[in-house]
Design a protein that fits this description.
heterodimer; A: about 150 residues; mainly alpha; 2 domains; about 65% helix; B: about 80 residues; rod-shaped
């Protein structure tokens, strides 16, 4: 840090050296530059640039030292972002369900419905009325609706 | 132990530039020897002293601190 601070002060001195001929008035604006002005301006510019490089180098050195001491954590390498999987356009629409999820739902509900119908059939058989409910190929009870209406009518 | 930065070289360069700035008014000839000093010469001399002083202090201070760190590291290693 010491070096960076002194480089900064030298940078300010260099900038002043560039400005001084015009600030003090020994170089008129628009007139040809005198030898003193040329010397001051170009030397000031050189000093400013060199001290700027010095500041950068000293700062870089301080940062490297802090990194080595573990005060500054090294920046993690950027991870490649995986490309998002292509989603069908239907999935993006609200309320739209893909066909696969509907069949999954049927597969889950089918044993429950079967057990429920078997239970109803058993109860009817014990009461000695009605026919046993059947399950159609799509898992729906063909006789369920009238039975439900009958039960609702009771 | 810290490594010596390359920035130390820039302080050497600015030190040399400051020394040149002291000599330039007489070398280029915009200040006659024996005559009253012009404003340009006075300014150059003041800025040159500043630049030389700052560069020298920066250089010596940085080297001193580096040596101090090296000594401390050597002592720690010896213990």
């Amino acid at each position: 840090m010491w070096g960076a601070v002194f480089s900064f002060l030298v940078l300010v001195a260099g900038l002043w050296l560039m400005l001084a001929p015009f600030a003090f008035g020994y170089q008129q604006g628009g007139a040809n530059w005198a030898d003193s002005t040329k010397n001051d301006f170009w030397l000031g510019l050189g000093i400013a640039l060199v001290s700027l490089i010095g500041m950068a180098l000293f700062t870089q050195s301080v940062v490297a030292e802090l990194r080595r001491a573990g005060v500054i954590k090294p920046r993690p390498a950027p991870q490649p972002v995986p490309a998002p999987e292509a989603q069908p356009a239907m999935a993006a629409m609200p309320g739209a369900r893909p066909a696969a999820s509907t069949s999954d739902l049927e597969r889950v509900l089918l044993p429950m419905a079967t057990a429920l119908l078997a239970d109803i059939a058993e109860r009817r058989a014990s009461q000695g009325q009605g026919t046993a409910p059947t399950i159609s190929a799509n898992g729906r009870d063909a006789a369920a609706a009238p039975v439900t209406q009958q039960e609702e009518g009771k | 132990m810290r490594t010596v930065s390359l920035g130390i070289l820039t302080l050497v360069v600015t030190l040399i530039a400051g020394l040149w700035l002291m000599y330039a008014p007489f070398a280029i000839g915009y200040q006659q020897t024996g005559a009253d000093w012009t404003l340009a010469t006075k300014n150059d001399l003041v800025v040159a002293i500043l630049v030389v002083g700052l560069s020298l202090t920066g250089f010596v201070g940085y080297i001193a601190m580096s040596l101090q760190d090296a000594l401390r590291a050597a002592k720690t290693q010896a213990e």
